[in-house]
Every structure is written in C-alpha cells, then in structure tokens.
Amino acid sequence: MNTKKHKKTETERVLNSRAYIKSKLKAEEYVNDNKRMIKIAGEAAKKIKSEGPIGKIRDDINASIRLIRAYASGSYKKIPWQSMTLIIASIIYFVTPIDLIPDFIIGLGFIDDAAILTWTFNAIRNDINSFVEWEKGNNA
C-alpha cells in the first residue's frame, strides 16, 4: 500500500469527520475570543507528548501555541483569519479526547490528531514560518 496515499486518505477522513467539523465551527468563535484562544493554547501545551506521531510535529505545535497566544494578546496579527481558524480548529480537535479515534486508545488515539495537525501545518506553512521569523526578530 502506498503510504502517502494512505495518509492522505486518513487526513481526508479526519477533515470530513463530525468531530473536526465541530472543531472548525468552534474555532470560528474562538478566533474572536482572546480568553478562549489562550485557554485552548494552554490545554494543547499540556497535552503535547515527546514520542509517537505527535512528537514528530512537536515544534510546529509549540509554534502554533505561541502564535495563538501572540494573536490573542494582539502582539501578532499578520496572519490571515482563515489560517488562524485552521490552527485553532486543529488545536481544538487535538485537545478533544473524543474524536474520530478516541485518545484513550493506546497506540492509535493520536494518529488522527497527528494527521490533521500535519495537514494544517503543511497548508499554512508560510504563515507559521513568517510568525517564527517575526518571533526571532522580536526576541533578538
């Protein structure tokens, strides 16, 4: 079986799942509510693991958490609203324990989370990279 084709199919399943659609609808509310964005970023920071499928995208998750916090504080707004909504939807999906594959299923529970997060990060790679560069400039 072609691994790329399998991953794409898994990602498409997640994108079309009721859980992700619900996360995306919530994200549209969160993007205009700074307190909710800060809260969801904190929940994601607690849930990050260093191993397994999530460990491979840990740097992008951390960058997204910092991006959400910077956006909520008003210090960084140079990201399209649609990209911000995708990040928040994916983070909501990630922190929700009951989704397409429930997180309590050891060994499988984070595969769908990793698929949707990877898809999101690839879709908005330029926006994440721009934020990280902005961050470096402000921390220099």
Structure description:
- With 140 residues, this protein is mostly helical.
- It has one domain (3-139).
- 74% of the residues lie in helices and 0% in strands.
- The protein has 8 helices and no strands.
- It has helices at residues 3-15, 18-30, 34-47, 52-55, 58-73, 81-95, 111-123, 125-139.
- Helix 1 crosses helix 7, helix 2 packs across helix 6 (81-95) and helix 5 (58-73) crosses helix 6.
- The longest helix has 16 residues, at 58-73.
- The protein is globular and about 40 Å long.
- The model has no long low-confidence stretch (mean pLDDT 81).
Report a brief summary of the structure:
The chain is an all-alpha fold and 140 residues long. The protein is 74% helix and 0% strand.
**Share of residues in strands:** under 5%
Mean pLDDT: 81
Percent helix among the residues?
A: over 70%
Molecular shape: globular
Q: How many DSSP-defined strands?
A: 0
Q: Biggest sheet, open or closed, and with what strands and sense?
A: none
Any descriptors?
single chain, 140 residues, mainly alpha
Could you outline the blueprint of secondary structure elements for this entry?
Blueprint: H1 3-15, H2 18-30, H3 34-47, H4 52-55, H5 58-73, H6 81-95, H7 111-123, H8 125-139
